[in-house]
Amino acid sequence: MKTAQEFLQFRKASWIRLNQLCEEFYFTPKGLTRPEICLKMNVSFELAVIIQFVLSAFSQPKDPSKARRKDGSHIAAHSLQLFESAWNFFGIDIMEVYDAVLIHDVIEDTLVTGDEIGLELGDRTAELANLMTEEVQWFSGMLGSSFVQVDKDRGSIVRFVRKLKTGGKVIAIAEILDRIDDISDLKYLEDKLAKGGEDRDKALVGLIKKFGKCCYTVHELTEESSDVRMLKQFFDQLMHEQVERLNHLERDPNRWIVFHQIMGEADCYRELESVV
């Protein structure tokens, strides 16, 4: 199995290239045609169709202020990155996985609907998009003998994971790829750590929450396949190396992230499963 360091180097290089492709698509007079996408990404025409659709969808974000990430990169590049990771790094050869990772944020982050996806790309692609869409809402219910108002983010993740489990191997692979990417790009939190003071405290809390949420999601997906097992193993390897690297940046050992904190955060989601 390839190493976490190899993946981070691969991701860094492809991230630059994919953002350059986004720049060409959005800011050249004619954008990019499907044959041009085929050449630039070395993909089939079938894949170029969905890639062009996804890039066009992200030109209509639900929140225009979030068309770019905090580092200035295009949010559309994230979907392209998941495809690149699946195909060119992990060697996953399942067309529906490519469709799922490319389309996974379209309903959640753009004005394009599931019905429009179905009309343009087919009912199965629309089904994949819907399965990969998290719905954030408030929940309440009984936890033991107490009535509780559930944190909307945690409650929504618990329900989302429940939906993911109905999607079989394809959705499990796509979601784990997404979570691997989530714990790969931590620069904005690293910058806060470097500032010290309250920023550092908030960054530590944010990192523990991020790792805990991703850990819960990945290990609750119980679909059995060699690709799923390989990706879970890689996720664990990457998470351990990321935590060790972040702790190396923190001089005070009393402020290091420890794995029981991450597992405790993951357990917070499991405690809510009976409520939501």
Give the helices and strands, then pairings.
Layout: H1 4-27, H2 34-41, H3 45-57, H4 76-89, H5 95-103, H6 106-109, H7 114-121, H8 123-131, E1 139-143, E2 146-150, H9 152-164, H10 168-182, H11 187-195, H12 197-220, H13 226-249, H14 259-271
Antiparallel strand pairs: 1-2
Keywords:
two-stranded antiparallel sheet, 68% helix, 2 domains, 276 residues
What does this entry show, briefly?
The chain is mostly helical and 276 residues long.
Could you walk me through the main structural features you see in this protein, from its secondary elements to its overall organization?
By secondary structure, this protein is mainly alpha-helical. It has two domains: 1-133, no CATH class; 137-276, no CATH class. The protein is built from 14 helices and two strands, in the order ααααααααββαααααα. It has helices at residues 4-27, 34-41, 45-57, 76-89, 95-103, 106-109, 114-121, 123-131, 152-164, 168-182, 187-195, 197-220, 226-249, 259-271, and strands at 139-143, 146-150. A hairpin with a 2-residue loop joins strand 1 and strand 2 (146-150). Helix 4 (76-89) crosses helix 10 (168-182).
